[in-house]
Amino acid sequence: MGCEPTGSHTELPSPGRVLCLSWHPSGTHIVAGSIDFFRVIDVASGQTVQRIMVNHHVEKAKRECVVWAIALLSSGTVVSADSFGRVQFWDWELGTLAESHTVSTSAALSLAVSEKEDSIIVGTSTGATYQLQLLPVNLGGQEKRWVRTKPFQFHSHDVRAVAHSPTALISGGLDAQLVIRPLMEKMQKKGYDAVLRKFTFPHRRLVSCARKARLLLFQFSQYLELWRLGSTEETGKDGEVLSLCRMPEHLVQLKSKGPEHIYCSCVSPCGTWIGYSTASRFHLYRVRCDGDGVSLRKVPKVPKLLPPAYQLQFSANSDSLFVASARGSVHVFQLLEPGGCKHLHTLQPPSGCSEAVYLLAPSADGHWLAAVSGDWAIHIYNLKCFKHHCMVPAYNCAVSALAIHPSTNNLVIAYSDQQLLEFSIPEKQYTSWSRAVQSRGLHRAWLERDSPITHITFNPKNPAHILLHDTYLLCVLDKSLPLPDDSTLLMNQSTLKQLPETARKRQLHAFKICKKFQPLLFMDLLDENCLVVVERPIMDFKTQLPLPVQQKKFGT
Amino acid sequence: FFTERVFGRSCPEGLRYVSPCRYVLYVSGDFVKVYSVNTEEILRLLGGHADLVTGIQLNPQNHMQLYSCSLDGTIKLWDFMDGIPIKTFTVGTKLLALYTLASAEDSVFVVIPKKGERDTFQLVSVELTKGIGQDLEGKELSVVLDDVGASMKHIAFGREGTYVVSVKDVNLQVYFFKRKLLNRFSLSTVKTKGDNRFSCVVCHPKEDCIATGHADGKIRLWRNFHHKKEYTYSTLHWHHDIVMDLAFSVEGTRLLSGGVESVLVQWHNESSCQKDFLPRLGSPIEYISMSSDGVLCCTLHTDNRLSIINSNLRFSRSIQGLIKSRDVKTGLVVDPRTKALVLNGEPGHLQFYSLQSDQQLFSLDIVQRQYIHQAGLKQSDLVKVAFSARGTWLATVEESEEVTDPELQLKLWLYNEEIQSFELNTRINTPHDNHITDLCFRDMDELGEDSLILVTTGRDCVFKVWVMVEDTDPEGNWSCDFVGSYHNYQATNCCFSEDGSLLAISFEETVTVWDSLTWDLKCTFCHPPGNIRNICFGRLTCSKYLIGATDYGFLCCWNLLTCALEWSAHLNVVVLQPDPLSEHIAAVSWLSKESSLFVFKPSEPRPVYIQRNLCKEKIRLAAFVPRDEPENTEKYLWLRKSQLFFLTDTQELMTLSTKSLEERLTPSSKQLAVEESLPVTPFSLLLGKHRHQQAQEDTDLGKLVVHNKQEQASPAVKELLHTPAHVLPSASFLCTIFINSLLISKENKSAEEVADEVEMESEKAEDDSDEEDVTAMEQEDTSHMELLGEMTCKLSKSQEKELQKIRKMDYSWLSAL
Q1: Selecting from 2.70.40.10, 2.40.50.430, 3.40.50.720, 2.130.10.10, what CATH number does the domain B8-152 have?
Q2: H or E element: which one contains B759?
Q3: Which residues does the annotated region (Disordered) include (chain B) (predicted)?
Q4: Distance, in angstroms, between B407 CA and closest chain A CA?
Q5: Structure confidence by residue, pLDDT tens digits, B365-399
C-alpha cells in the first residue's frame, strides 16, 4: 500500500486520483483521499460506501483542496490532512465533520496516528510538524477532544513522511533529514532513547568500490555514477597533500529509467560489472574500458525477480552475484563472459524466514556467504555446496554492518547498539576475542555514539586490524591491543601524539579513531598502502534542494 | 491639613468589569474608581484605604458588591453603586493581591508576605467572619500555596475553583483543592534563546486549560496538568516582547492577549492560525479584563488609560484621566485659557488635563510622527513647553533622544478660536546648537501685540530672543531677534519679571538680569559655590525681589533695587514655584528621603507655611492652578486663589487640600444623585425648594450613629421615593418624617448664614446642602444595614429622633393662621 505525494506540492495531481490510503485497523474498510474529497471503501464488496467533500463548508473555495494524508481510526473517525493546512476529524458513517484544526497556513502533507490512537503527528510543507493529542476536556472527565499541542520545527522543507512510535515522533523531510524526536513524557529514564536524533544519511552503503580496478560507484536516487580514482606516485608524511599524477575521472553516468528510485547498487571487484535494482526491476550492466573510452552494455535476459533485490553483492573473484531477496532468500547468479548471467541457486534458511535479506557478506575465498534478514538473524551459507552452514546466535538488535575476514574467515558483526562481535565461521562459535570483549564491555563513549557502523573492512597486512566507520568517525580496531576502560579517553589519538614514545605505548588501546572526515559515506582499503574515503559535504546537496516555502519571519 | 493623591499610579491591580457592562472599576492609588462605560464619567470614588489598593474583586455572591484589599492590611467590602463601605476586615499584614471564589462563600484568598522571609509571598485563604458591625477581624489564615508571585497576574483560579495556579519565574504550580495534590512544572532556562519566564496566568472558564504568558512573547496553553509527566502544552506566538496580560472570553473560545506592542490579539479556539488584531491602541497594554457577560472587554494601558473594546474587537471608547508618560520633561504647566494642567502625554503629544473633571481635555500632537514601541529606538519627544500669558501662543521644543545630535525643533502654535485648538504657526529647526534648557514668553496685556517675545536658553551658552515679524514666509513668522551670552557659560534658566521689563537668565553659577527693551546687561548676582537650579521673580508687592535656588543647597533672595542679597536660607530646593495670583512662592526641598514644602513671601525670610514630610517620594514638579472661586479658608491664605499640585517621581499627582477626604468624596458622589435628572413636576419643584433648606445637626443623634451627621426633611422625602420599598421602615413610621418635610422650617430664611456659622462652630465642617443630601442618603443606607442586626434598639433611637424633630419644629406658621 503506497501513497506518494510525488513532485512538488505546488503541482497538483489530476482530480480523482487517489493520493493517500488508510486501512481500518480491523481491515474492513479503506479510506482513500483525493482532491476535494475522500472515499470510504468497503473491502468485502469493493464498493464506495461514503464520499465526503472536505471543503464543502468553505464558500466558493477558489483553490482545490488536496487530501494529502488520511487515517482511519478504529472508532470510525477519519482524520484527513489537506492542502489548506487543516487536520479534520470526520465521522464517516454520518458524513459529518467533528473537529477541524488549522495547524498551519501551508499544506499538511503527512499524518501518523499512535497505536493507542490518542496522539497524531502531522507534517506540513513549511517543515514544521505538529502533534495533536486526545485530551480530556476536564480533568477526570469522560469527554475528550483533540488539541494541537506541540509544534516542532526540525525541517527546512516539506515533511513528506511521519511515523508515530510509542515513545517517539519520527519525521522525514524533503531536506534529506530523518528526525526522531522522543516523547519525554513516555520516557522512563534519561538515556540514548531520550535524545533528539537527526539523520542526514541512510545507514546503508551508497558507495561501492572495485578494488582491483580502482573504481567507485556512487548511487544517487535516480542515477549511478562511475568514477575512476586518481593516483599518485609520491609518498609523504601525515597531513601532507600529495600531488596527483592521474586525476580522478568521471567515467560514466547511468540513469535509471522511469520514476523509480534506485534501491541498491554494486560494482564488481574487477570493475566490469555493475548491478542495480529499483523497486520493481533489477538491471545488470557490463562495463568495458577501451583505453579512455568506457562503454556500458546491458546484460540481456537477466532473470526476472519478484520482488527485486534488496541488496547486491559480487563475489570476490567477480564470477558470481548474490542478490538479497524477500523471505530470507539469496539468489546466486553466475556471471558469464562476455556478458550474460545465469541463475545458479537460491539459498534459503532451513527454518524459513518472513523478512527480506538486507545485508550480504561474501568471504574472500568464495567459500562462505553471510546474510542478514530483517528479523536480525544472520545465516551463513556454504557456497561450495550451496548449503546452509550455521546461524549466528540471535542478538536482540539490528545488524548495521558485517564482513568476513579474508584470512581467518571470522565474521565481524556490528550491531546498531554499537556492540561488536566476532564469530568464527569454521568453528561456528564466537571467538575468544569476542568473548573477552563481551565480558569486559565496550567503552562508554563508544556505546553512546549516535550513528551505527555502516561498513567493515580488513587490513590485509595486519590480520589483527579491523577497519570500521560510521558517518562521523573512522576507526582502526587493533585486536592485539588491550581494550580501553571507561576511565581512559576513547579518542586519544591527539593526546598520544604529544606523548613520548614510552608513555605512548602504555596509553595505547584497541580503538584508534580518526574524526577527520565528516560526514563519512564510505571507506575501503584498496590495497596495502591505499585507503579510499568518500566524504559528502552537507552543503553539496543543501544547495540542490528546492526553495523552501516562503514564510515571513519576524525580525528578518 | 491633608495631602492626598489626586491620581495615583496607574495600576496596580486595576480593572474589574461589572455586569451588565455598565461600570468599570479601576484601582487608582488608594482609591477605587467606578466609571460608567456609557458616559465615560467617574461615578464613584471609593476611598477609605490608608495605603495603595492592591486588588479588587467582585463579590461572587452579589455582583453589586466589591471586595478590595490594600497594603494597609484590610479587606473592605463595598457597595460600589452607592460608594458605601459595608464591612472592613482587618488582616494585619500587607495584602498584595485578592481573589474570590464563587464556591468559597465566606473566605477570600489573599497574597501576603511570608513571615520572616524577604520577598517571598504566600497565598492564604482568609475566613471572613460573619459578625455584626462594620469592623471585623479576618484572622483565620490558612496557607494554600507557598512561594507565589506578588502580582495579581501570577495567580489564577481554575474552572469552578477546583484548582489554583501560580507562576513565578520559570515555575508553574497547580494545587488541586479536592485531591490536595500539588504539581510543579518548570521550563528549562538553558536551551531557550529568549527569556521564557512567566509573566501572567489565566484559566479557561469551562475547561481544564491554563494559559500562561511569557517574557519572550509566547503564550502557552497547558493541559493534562494533573499528570506529573504526561502534561502537555501548545504554544501561541505573536508578541515579540513580554505578554503583559491574558484574558479568556466567558465561554473560553477566545483568548485575548496584550503587550508592549499596543496591539490586542484575539486567538480563536486556541489555534495559532486564527487570530485577530486590534492595533494602534496607543500605548502598551497592562491589564485586560472581560465583562462578565462577554459583551465588552477593557484594557488598561501603561499610560493610565482605559480602552473599552467591543466583543467584535472594535474600539469602542476610552476613559482617560491623566496620561502617564514615560518621563514628564515639560514640567507642569497651566494652560491660562482652560486652567488645565499641561504636560507630556502620549509619546510626542501634549496633554491638556482638566483637574476639575479628572479628564483629558485634548491631546495635541506636537511631534507628528508615528511612535514605535521598541526598546532602544531613539525617537523625538517633547521636552519643553511654554504658554503666553493669555494662552494664545504655545511654544514647544522637541528633541530626539540622541545625546550627540539632539535634532532640535522649536514650534510655535497659535490658538485658533474657530477650531478650538492650536495650529502650527512656525517651525524653527535647530534653534540652538545644543539642548534647550528653558524657554519663556513675555506677553503683557498693556503693551499690546508688540510685547510678545519668546526667550530660549540653551546649553550652547547663548540665549535667544524670538519675535514675530510681519512678512509671512511659509516657514512661519517668528524669527530670532537677539542672541546674548555671558562669559560662555551654559544658560540654564530664564524668567521675566512681572511687568516684563526685566529678564533674568541664569548662567551656571550666575544670575544675569537684562533690560528687555535694549537687551543691556543690568546686573549680575551669584551665590557661590553651586550652580543656579531655579530662578523666579517675586510678584505683586514683592516684584522687586529675585529668588534663586542653587544646587549647593541655598535659597537666595536678591533685591533688584539695591542689587544686594536680601536673605538666604540653607535649603536643598528642588522645585521653586511662584503663585501667579499672589506673592507666595512654594519651594519643595528634598532631604533624607522626604520632601518638605515651604511657602514664603520674598519680602519675609520667615516662611508662611511649612509642611515637613510632605511625602516619601521625591517631588519633581509643582504647579499652582488658579481656583475658579477663591476658597474660603482663614487659615491658609496662600491657598485662597490657587491650588498647589505636585508630581512625584512615580508620576503621582498630589495636591494639598484643606478638607478631609470624606468631604471631598461627597461632591463626586453627587454626580450619581438621582435628583439631577428628575423631571420637572410640581413635586420636584417642591423638592427643589427644600433642597436649600438647612437643618441643624442633631448632636445627640450624631453621637448615636457614627456617621449620621445630619437628618433633615427633604432628604427624607427623597429617600422615601428612592429607597427600594423592601428596605423601608413601615409607612406609619415614615409618615411623620414626610409630614415634617413638607413644613416650612425656621432656618429657611437664613440658610446660608446658618451654614457658615455651623461650619465655624463645628469641628466636622459642614457642606452645602446639596452635598449633604447625598451624605444623608448614604448614611441612611448604612443604618439600614445595621438595622437588620439591631432592629429593636434602632427603632427606639429613631423614635427618639422623631421626638426631637417634632420638638424643634417651627410652629410659627400656625400663629399666622
Answers
A1: 2.130.10.10
A2: helix B751-761
A3: 753-780
A4: 28
A5: 888 887 776 767 778 888 899 998 888 889 999 88
